[in-house]
Amino acid sequence: MLEIHDLHASVNGVEILKGIDLRVDAGETHAIMGPNGSGKSTLALVLAGHPAYEVTSGSVSFDGADLLALGPEERARRGLFLSFQHPIEIPGLRLDHFLRAGYNEVRKSRDEDEMDVLKFDRLIRAKAKDIRMDAALTKRSVNEGFSGGEKKRNELLQMAILEPKLRILDEVDSGLDVDALRSVADGINALATPQSATLIVTHYQRILDYVVPDAVHILIDGRIVRSGDKQLAAEIESKGYEPVAEAAGLAPAGGS
Amino acid sequence: MSAQATDEARYLAAFEAAERNGAAHDPTWLRELRRDAMAEFTRAGFPTARRGNEPWKYTDVRSLASTAFVAPDVTEPLGEIDLSPYDLPCPRVHQLVFVDGRYAPQLSTDPPSEGERASHVFFERGDGPIVGRIAEAAHYDVPLVREHLGKHAGAAAGAFTSLNTAFVRDGAFVSIPDGVSVPEPIYLLFISTARPERPTVTYPRVLIVAGRDSSATVLVSFESLGDGAYFTDAVTEIVAGPGASLRCITLQRESDAAYHVSTTNVTQARDSSVSTVTVDLGGGLVRHDLSVLLAEPGASASLNGLYLGRGKRHVDNHTFVDHAVPGASSDEVYKGILDDDSRGVFVGHVLVRPGAQHTVAHQVNKNLLLSDGAEADTQPKLEIFADDVTCTHGAAVGQLDPAAMFYLKSRGIGEAVARALLVHGFVREVVDSIADDAVRQYTDDAVMAALRAG
Amino acid sequence: MTSKETVRELETQGYKYGWVTDVEEESAPPGLSEDIVRWISAKKEEPEWLLEWRLRAFRHFMKLLEDKQNPTWANVSHPPIDFQAMSYYAAPKPKLELESLDQVDAEILRTYEKLGIPLEEQKRLAGVAVDAIFDSVSVMTTAKDTLAKQGIIFSSVSEAVKEHPELVKKYLGSVVPYSDNFYAALNSAVFSDGSFVYIPPGVRCPLEISTYFRINAEGSGQFERTLIIADKGSYVSYLEGCSAPMRDTNQLHAAVVELITMDDAEIKYATIQNWYPGDADGKGGIYNFVTKRGKCAGANSKISWTQVETGSAITWKYPSVLLQGDNSVGEFYSVALVNGRQQADTGTKMTHIGKNTSSTIISKGISAGHGNNTYRGLVKILPKATGARNFTRCDSLLIGDQCGAHTVPYIEVENPSSSVEHEASTTKVSEEQVFYAQQRGLSAEAAQTLIINGFVRDVVKRLPLEFAVEANRLLELNLEGAVG
Questions:
Q1: Residue B330 counted as domain residue
Q2: Which of A6, A144, B12, B427 could form a disulfide with A58 if both were Cys (CB 3.0 to 4.6 A apart)?
Q3: Domain end (from B241, B262, B296)
Q4: Is residue C23 a contact partner of residue C105, using CB atoms and an 8 Å limit?
Q5: How far apart are CA A180 and CA A186, in angstroms?
Q6: Is B375–C412 a contact, with Cβ atoms under 8 angstroms apart?
Q7: Tens of pLDDT along chain C (484 residues)?
Q8: Residue of chain C whose alpha carbon sits nearest to that of B57
Q9: Given an 8 Å threshold on Cβ–Cβ distance, is B396 in contact with C420?
Q10: Could you say which of B367, B382, B387 has the minimum Cβ distance to residue C424?
């Protein structure tokens, strides 16, 4: 589904990704782990097409198409979804209006009919119930005044509605307590299908207790320095990133 | 100089002609009011000076002053007018319609019967709102009209106010008796036929008097049926009695060739609350002067506005909030969206007079500039003479947030729709400040339609 | 502090710089005429082109005066100024070519020492070069030789006209033309002295450059002219201070300051303005009507104004920046305090011309007694200023209920890729804040001082340390008696 080859990317002229290779197939869940500043979020944003990041070399194919040639909305319409680490607040724009606009644009791109307000309202309520989110939130402005947990759940709601093929979850557990984490993870698992793939970007191992990965990749200083199975995540949890970094001949980037 | 003299002389001639024709029935006080106003207008002249003319620094009215507008021909019969595009989405409204400045009884809902209207009894009811004509109220010499007409928009309010007062003959008189709460919206609709043959001028006049502890929503709407050039010189006076709660929404959708100059003066008594929302979606050259006098403690005012600049439209909002006494509050949010070669001007002046302690005054003006040719000028102005106050103001000019654009795009939304959504989100705060469901819905639809039209 | 507000007026003793230096002075006779302009120019042995320029300015001023074009838009009031009643030149006698300190009148030296600016070599402040201006003339410029070694020119304008006429001719009036405004025209006609600074390419000026202005003579106006040019890649930090004797007549101070930065150059310009503010009833004091403007002519250049305005009966002053070079930066940091009957109408103009230019405006106004304080500013983004940014923050603090605080910002944006933000607030020192400090053992007076220091901190911290201390001391002094 997703094939990344020797991907280099920079922001404001500073290279952040220094050659990433990664392949994710349908039905798989991969975790990208790394210390702060290692380039994890950059990878997620580059895949989603954030305009501030410049891809300097390398290639990414998504379902056989050249992903890098597509605008962010086209990537979304083809089924790539990013759950943002810091979802933006948009005062004044009602969440349900926003959701319906996105949903109908995706449908239009597939030559499907737009869904009317009443039907969509029912869809939202059903999906919100599935992920145990208060549907009243959808009458408020996008993310405005939402708690950390509500923002993450809102990302999940959008994922439930758009039913993407590739789900990129950037620090989906940050700011959540144990109960909230568990219910968000339940939502992620419930929405998974054999046709979809998941890329979890995380600093900590704990989300991986709930959403179990098929593969774990350690990203340090813009490169994947080691890959393994879920045992690797446990190893990081007990020993930290330093031994992996040293073995790769690197000091852990960022740190604090 | 001589050209300028001619401009004012034209209006003087029209005034004298009007005084000769049928003004004799009007009460003396009204004729005096008009005469004084004409004298004031002739003295002051149009504010066309381009130097040392601070209130008109950003708005040049020379083309308005030099255009030879004429009074609409009142002898012509009114053609069929389809009002359905202007229907409010609610079962009952108190509706008064004026076409080219002329009262259109067949289009109005209040008063219900001819018999009831044709007596002074109509103006003395105490059980419901009185939505009537200034001409009739003057004819019966209704004390509230005599007391308030021209008293809140005085000579100092400027040449355009004087000009309106000089020609005041008819208009809407709304009175909410003490303790009366009006559930249905009161709808004052001023329609210009805007025929292209010759530019006309009308002087819409509104007087709203809300009694003690009364409550009502008034929508004043300016619509155009054609795309000709004309001049609307409107004046609205609003008097809120103790504890009154009044919501007044102005929706301006004149033709792109129209000049619209309006002056609104609000006077608020103890514990009254008045909310104004000014929405500009049309017009070629638009100027609003909105002044609120918080005359007694406990009064609170909310002033909201939104303006949409398209083509070469010029929209100028001047607001003035006068905190004359302690313990009053005001809150103001104006938002502008400026596209094409339009220009938006906002000058918001808040005055806290000596001794007006415990004043709370907040003001915000935000503008979105959407094209290279657009311009925004903003001047949030505080003048404070009391120390125990909380006053803030803020102004911003910028673009749509690129981070928000990316977020929308990452959900599959294309550029054009993303822009429309974000722009609507930007102004929603203003539309949402309209409490009445029907008026809010109607206004929101109008805003959306105007946004889509681009 | 008690909750009941009382207004106590500024005590005139609060002004510590109000003495008169007993020195024999030579003055021009009162009145303004072409002859006086010629007399001043001759006195300074000026070249013909400069006299011609002065005369053009003079004729322009007289025309403005005749047409009653004196500015009336500022939020200040004063009786009409009689421009024929004052003297346009005063200088200590005898005016010698000063070769060493021995030739400076001992009284004048003592004056500067009392003002905290000793001019004798062994007593001088370390790291500071000083130009001492006494009424209409520069009496002494220190550290010139040290600076000259790096090619830096630091002298009085009069001297620069003689030594570096090409530079003066090129830049004088290039940022503030004589036709700019009423007082700029007057200044251009009769300016007496001021400082001239030129920093050559790539040089970082090792010393703080400083000018101290002292008005001493009675019945005279002071019209200084300052010109600072920072050539490519250079840097200079400049500081001016001023004071005047207490007199019960008003004296006019109408200065013009022009700054120019070339590519990658930076000028920091700081002012501590402490002219005599007049007495509690508003009698006397300086009318401080000043035009200050900088031009970021080069790309990536920067001009930063910092001002602490505590003195003067009336202040009328808008240090501005023309942001012409791409990526250039303009800053304005201001504290303005009014007490007694003082009036201040001050602010800035940031004109964004080049691409990606940015400006920051931080204004802190304090009003006490019967004072009136107005922030007036213009942020203008011209159509070609793609990517321009401005941030403005104006805060006002009121002490007592007889004063006024006003904010009059103008924002004009003609480029859609720019962003402008303006915020303002007006408050008083909260009783909770004072109580909190009192609960920790501070007196109400001390608490208020601390809170005010905090209020102005963002501006004062931009001054060199010893001047920051001085600024805080002045604020405290000028607020004496204002705390209820």
A1: no
A2: A6
A3: B296
A4: yes
A5: 10
A6: yes
A7: 333 333 333 333 467 777 777 777 778 888 899 999 999 999 889 999 999 999 999 999 999 998 888 888 888 888 888 888 888 888 877 644 555 555 667 777 777 777 777 777 666 666 778 888 787 777 777 778 888 899 999 988 989 999 999 999 999 999 999 999 999 999 999 998 888 999 999 999 988 888 888 887 777 888 999 999 999 999 999 998 877 777 778 888 999 999 999 999 999 999 988 888 888 888 888 899 999 999 999 999 999 999 999 988 999 999 999 999 999 999 999 999 998 899 999 999 999 999 999 999 999 999 988 999 999 999 999 999 999 999 999 999 998 888 999 999 999 999 999 999 999 998 888 777 777 767 777 777 777 877 888 889 889 888 887 788 888 888 887 777 665 4
A8: C410
A9: yes
A10: B382
User: Which CATH architecture fits A2-247?
Assistant: 3-Layer(aba) Sandwich (3.40)
Q: Which pair of tokens denotes residue C17?
A: 């710089």
Residue C434: half-sphere exposure toward Cβ, Cα within 13 Å: 16
Query: Are there at least 3 beta-carbon pairs closer than 8 Å between A and C?
Result: no
CB nearest to A90's CB, from B412, B425, B429:
B425
Specify the number of domains making up chain B.
2
Q: Is residue A225 classed as helix, strand or coil in its secondary structure?
A: strand
Q: Which amino acid makes up residue B103? A: Y
> CB neighbours (10 Å) of residue C103?
12
**What would you report as the CA-atom Rg of chain C, rounded to the nearest whole angstrom?**
22
Q: Are residues B135 and B255 in the same domain?
A: yes
In a domain, B393, yes or no: no
Contact check, Cβ <8 Å, A93/B424? yes
Residue of A nearest to B428 (CA): A92
- Find out whether A82 and A170 touch, Cβ atoms under 8 Å: yes
Chain C touched by B383 (CB under 8 Å):
yes
Cβ <8 Å between B381 and C407: yes
Residue B368 inside a domain? The answer is no
Is the CB of B409 less than 8 angstroms away from the CB of A98? no
CB of C6 within 8 Å of a chain B CB? The answer is no
Residues on chain C touching B371 (C-beta within 8 angstroms): 416
**Do B405 and B291 have their domain in common?**
no
Q: Which of C194, C191, C197, C192 lies closest to C209, judged by CA? A: C197
How far B415 CA lies from chain C's nearest CA (Å)? 17
pLDDT in tens, B77-100: 777 888 899 999 998 999 999 999
Cross-chain Cβ contact B392/C426 below 8 Å: yes
**B387:C411 CB<8 A:** no
Q: Do C409 and B380 touch (CB under 8 A)?
A: yes
Of B264, B296, B328, the residue that ends a domain is B296
Residues, chain C: 484
Range of the domain at B425: 401-454
Packing angle of the helix pair B28-44, B2-20 (nearest 10 deg):
170
Please indicate, yes or no, if residue B367 is contained in any of the structural domains. no
Nearest residue of chain B to residue C419 (CA atoms) = B398
- Asked whether the ipTM of the predicted complex exceeds the cut of 0.90, the reply is no
**CB within 8 Å of C102: residues ≥ 6 apart:** none
